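INFO  loader      accepted 1 record
INFO  loader      residues=139
INFO  predictor   begin
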Amino acid sequence: MTAISDLIPHTGNMVLINTVQSCNQDDIICTTDTHFSPTNPLRNAHGLPISAALEYGAQAIALHGAMNKSQSEKSPKALIVAVRQADWTTDWLHTIDSELIIQASIATRMNALARYTFKISSKSDNSYIYQADVSVSIS
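INFO  predictor   done
INFO  writer      dumping tokens
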């Protein structure tokens, strides 16, 4: 099995996703508990702000791209170029008392541009914490 750090451009504490629950051509579902970690590199003096949710979503999207590439392709590099329709229900991720579920779905892809939707929810009650529609440039 390939380690998550081998599939995304991060190592150490910056790898925010613990497991990939499922992945197919259109969707990926991941889980994590790294929002609890006092060594999470996105934490500030007050805790883990909701703005960190975008990085959790970006890592799920990167994993989706890496896991769906053909064996002969190199791992694509992706950059979020636009965030639309972002919505959240809390200001702090560290206050969520259970694992996070990160779901990302590809909505469209045309050449080097893709549009994804992603949602982060609490495993304890499946209510959404953050959701957004993002455009990704792929090279």
